[in-house]
Amino acid sequence: MLIYKVVEISSVTEETIEETLNAWSAKGWSFDGLQFAMRESSKRPAMAFALFTRETSCGEGMP
Q: If you count DSSP H runs as helices and E runs as strands, how many of each does the chain have, helices first?
């Protein structure tokens, strides 16, 4: 079964993105994508969401 993890990155910098990707990859998650939330008044993203996936046996890691 494929499960998903979404991690909010509230301070969008090269360092925080790298830290997030490295930390969750080290925990066994596979990077799936990155989505940015933009501000209307700025070209810089207000926040980002890192998306990860992981294969698990049926029911493992589910509430």
A: 1, 3
pLDDT tens digits, one per residue of 4-19: 999 999 999 999 999 9
Q: Are 34 and 48 in contact (CB under 8 A)?
A: yes
Please tell me the total number of residues recorded for the chain in this structure. 63
Domain of 33 in residue numbering reads as 2-55
Structural domain contains residue 63: no
Total domains in the fold of the chain: 1
Phi, psi angle pair for 21, to nearest 5°: -60, -45
User: Can you give the pTM of this predicted structure?
Assistant: 0.83
